[in-house]
Amino acid sequence: MKRFTFSVPQNILFGEGVLKELPGAAGKLGGKHGFIISGPTLNRLGVVGQCEEILTQAGIAVSTFCDTEGNPSVETVERAAEAFRASGADFIVALGGGSPMDVAKAVGVVAKYGGSITEYEGADKVPGEIIPLIAIPTTAGTGSEVTAFSVITDHRRNYKLTVFSYKLIPAYALLDPLLLTSAPASVAAACGIDALIHAEESYVSLDASPFSEAMSEKAMELIGRSIRTYVADRSNLEAASDMLAGSLFAGIAFSWARLGNIHAMSHPVSAFFNVPHGVANGILFPYIVKYNEEAAFGKYQKIYNYISTEKKCESEFSKGMLEQAVRELNAQVGIPAKLSDAGVTDEYFAQMTEDAMKSGNIAVNPQKTVQEDILALYREAL
């Protein structure tokens, strides 16, 4: 067994109603004035107001920034950081899906250390602890409440930059399944497939360890048994709980094992064509499963049994079956089959291929990958 390292350096609260414990978490961080970073939809639905009320009733001042967008930009981070500094707040609450959390992490860096978030691109460039951060996911997908990554779009380059540092992991994560019940089916599907891919890619990653594999497997078990039910009925709290816990475990897994070609390739798809991250991942999923089959086949039967409605013993399982199961799952939850179905064309494939190859995920993909392979995969998925 190879050497491995892990830690889970945060406080995680899970269960129906844990949102009400937000003031207690803030108090343990010494927080007197919270700054909520969220999106316009959650603001319109009253979820932001709910958090504001919980904090103000506990005597904690609140300011808000609700202008995050899907695939958040460098400019959004700059506006949010300016608003944070002007507010006088001393801690941040990231409320929403991956986009508000990516912005909140980035604000936590630049508000503390200055400069542009572009200056922190890459690994381990954050010099120390960031502004205290509490993460509250309202989707079951990104796992960003427990990850060490912030992904921000730089429109000047049509590029999704990644900041990686374990300093980005929120001090507290509050996971309340009640917050997942208002998600539209399309969002539930895209986020759920994203979480499943986090689990699958970290599981077959060359950097996988017994610790990360245990997290990946539990994530696939929970998501595989509940994603269809949750997409069909978001009010099903048992299914919502499975999805939220599965997303959590998958996030922990890929924080330590990284991902693979799916995520390396999906970031340029989103950067150039503004395709939602989970949708881009989902479309690429079966193509990369097929590509990795020779290298990762030893783990494919177990993945299949987690995500398929049918179970196969070793003697019944054969090549191509996992790819087909992924295609069937995508169709069942409404993920498009091809990149062209999401408005992607081949005009930027050369630049997208170069950008994908810059991702550190390429190095841990189980099947060795060169630039020509990425270009061929884009063309196949088109």
* Mean pLDDT over the full residue set: 95
State the helicity in percent bands: 40-55%
Examine the coordinates and then state which fold CATH places here, giving the name of the CATH topology of the largest domain.
Dehydroquinate synthase-like, alpha domain
Spatially, the strands of the biggest sheet line up as: 1-9-6-4-2-3
Structural class: alpha/beta
Oligomeric category: single chain
How is this structure best described in words?
By secondary structure, the chain is of the alpha/beta class. It folds into 2 domains: 11-179, Rossmann fold (3-Layer(aba) Sandwich); 183-381, Dehydroquinate synthase-like - alpha domain (Dehydroquinate synthase-like, alpha domain, Up-down Bundle). Helix content is 52%, strand content 11%. It is built from 15 helices and 9 strands. The strands form 2 sheets. A 6-stranded parallel β-sheet has the order 1-9-6-4-2-3, with helices on both faces. It has a 3-stranded mixed β-sheet with strand order 5-8-7, with helices on both faces. Strand 7 and strand 8 form a beta hairpin. The longest helix has 23 residues, at 210-232. The protein starts with 10 loop residues before the first strand and ends with a helix. The mean pLDDT is 95. It comes from Blautia luti. Its EC number is 1.1.1.202.
